[in-house]
Write a structure and sequence with these properties.
Elements lengths: L1 H19 L3 E6 L2 E6 H54 L29
Antiparallel strand pairs: 1-2
Helix pairs in contact: 1-2
Protein name: Lipopolysaccharide assembly protein A domain protein
Pfam family, one: LapA_dom
Keywords: Cell membrane, Membrane, Transmembrane, Transmembrane helix
């Protein structure tokens, strides 16, 4: 919203400048000479620089689009890899742990007794 307000104020000032400066003067464009008012020249220069700024903004946005496209491709590749791994895991047989055969023994700590207090 602020950009719109600033743009409108700038356009109003530019149009007011154009209205109040109607004096003609010669303009040398390459190999020709034209008569134009100061307001029209300022308006033409403003439009040219507006499009130059838009072009520069477009170029910088292209860099961001390329980065976003690469990130999206990488994301798609990683999602496909996850799906492959999940499919492999689903096809593996599920084994139940053996009861009594491979029971882990608790580690005995020489410093602490059964209540957690150091033994004497």
């Amino acid at each position: 919203m602020l950009r719109l307000v600033v743009t409108l104020v700038f356009l109003v000032l530019l149009i007011a400048f154009n209205i109040f400066n109607q004096d003609k003067f010669p303009i040398n464009l390459f190999f020709t000479t034209k008569d134009a008012s100061v307001g029209v020249v300022v308006l033409i220069v403003a439009v040219l620089f507006f499009f130059l700024g838009a072009f520069i903004l477009w170029l910088s946005a292209m860099k961001q689009w390329k980065r976003a496209r690469k990130a999206e491709q990488k994301n798609t590749t990683l999602e496909e890899q996850i799906a492959e791994i999940q499919a492999k895991m689903a096809s593996l047989p599920v084994t139940q742990p053996s009861v009594g055969g491979g029971v882990l023994q608790p580690v005995k700590d020489n410093l602490a007794g059964p209540s957690g207090a150091p033994s004497a």
